Amino acid sequence: MVSLSCVFPFCRANADMIPLPTMQWMEGNLRLLDQRKLPSEETYIDCRDIDSLAEAIRTLAVRGAPAIGIAAAFGAVIAALTTDPGEKFNEAFVAKIDILEGTRPTAVNLFHCLDIQRRIFRMNPGRDSAIEALLESARDMMRSDLEASRQMGRFGADLLEKGSVVLTHCNAGGLATAGLGTALAVIYEAWERGILEKVYADETRPLLQGARLTAWELSRAGIPVDVLPDSAAASLLQKGEVDAVIVGSDRIAANGDAANKIGTYPLALAAKEHGIPFYVVAPLSTFDLSTPCGSGIEIEQRGRNELNSPGERKLLPESAGVWNPAFDVTPATLITAIICEKGVLFSPDADSLRLLLGKDRQFKK
Prior knowledge:
Radius of gyration: 20 Å
Number of strands: 15
Distance between the termini: 36 Å
Low-confidence stretches: 1-19, 360-365
Strand content: 15-25%
Structural class: alpha/beta
Number of domains: 2
CATH topology of the largest domain: Rossmann fold
Shape: globular
Number of helices: 11
CATH superfamily of the largest domain: Translation initiation factor eif-2b, domain 2
Strand order of the largest sheet: 7-6-5-8-11-14-15
Mean pLDDT: 88
């Protein structure tokens, strides 16, 4: 008999930080906090089959590279649960995993987590055995991500001085991970140490993840946060109002180039111009040594409606086209340091990344 009842609390640095879970596993159902409706509504959606989970990932109900990967890992459990045992069980399972793999092309965590689940599935023949092993593997990923968040928070906070003001872009907090976040884990740790004064959060056009999600997270944690238009960030840096820029990443190439939410690259340029440290915070699952440099990272193109109809009001004339990349790539030469759970890598390049990782990690896609 396979027992599948468990609930994953939304872990946080202290009891005051965001008591809502982002993911809950409930008897074959992955319940997700619907991030599309934050901050006005705190509602959940239930994913009981692969199609509903794929749609949740594709439409950003769940988002953030680590969170996408973990959700997909639980998706592998759903795939096994919803596939009839029989001679075509393996083939049907793989087909469902392929659906999840096709949802978002840039975040390497998705492919990394699904590769792990594929291996687990091959090592555990039989439906019940596979379900048990896949579920335990997904749980391990959540636990590892939380511990990685804690470690990254400690390493990153060590780089900040008392009274620091930081700028962040998009959302790299608990909503984007299994726990504290990546960039926001550093911010939470710095706040608890009493060395952080305040945070500036870019709106992050066009879907406003900074305004809707980062500001929501930080406000619930009692951390002072000011939201600014993306177009104002360079001026803020020019005025000397910021001590460090801290962002997450969805994929880091073998030479240290880092893909993150669109608008990150101009921040790095402005930080370089004004002598402000630019830190990228990401777990090891975000590193992709199979991609030599940033130009090899596939950049997801999003749909017209995100620009044309962000609310009920239509903004664009019918004859106008759109160019709506979800991510851009920041060259390693603009990155002061990459912070991961193993430590801090200053002036990242191909040699130093391989030395940090300790082995050649090859991920798909």
